[in-house]
Write a structure and sequence with these properties.
mainly alpha; three-stranded antiparallel sheet; 6 helices; 3 strands; 49% helix
């Protein structure tokens, strides 16, 4: 049985396709074509009112229910924008490990 290695043609094709088709969040937001993944994830975290939200749920929200979303990268982008999001907490759910994120709002800190 042959195992895929990083140098295989399909990896190169996938990387090239990503370069050609994916915009950065900054480019997407500046295009004015819709809501960025960061904005979608931030809205979901705000709706949770300080409670944790799982990475799979954030990925679904961030991708608009279809497609792909790098949640950890979008969380890093939100932190760069100044949002207080603690490190992910790992929890086992149905035998699988999931990361959970939450947003700490300013009003939460003041209370």
């Amino acid at each position: 049985m042959s195992h895929a290695r990083p140098g295989h043609w399909w990896m190169k094709q996938a990387k090239q396709h990503a370069k050609e088709t994916m915009n950065t969040q900054t480019e997407y937001h500046a295009s004015g074509t819709g809501t960025s993944q960061c904005d979608l994830i931030l809205a979901r975290l705000r709706r949770s009112r300080g409670c944790e939200v799982s990475m799979p749920e954030l990925a679904k929200v961030g991708s608009g229910g279809e497609g792909f979303c790098m949640v950890h990268s979008r969380i890093a982008d939100l932190r760069k924008r100044g949002h207080d999001i603690p490190p992910a907490r790992l929890k086992k759910v149905d035998g699988k490990m999931h990361s959970f994120y939450r947003l700490i709002e300013v009003s939460e800190v003041a209370a």
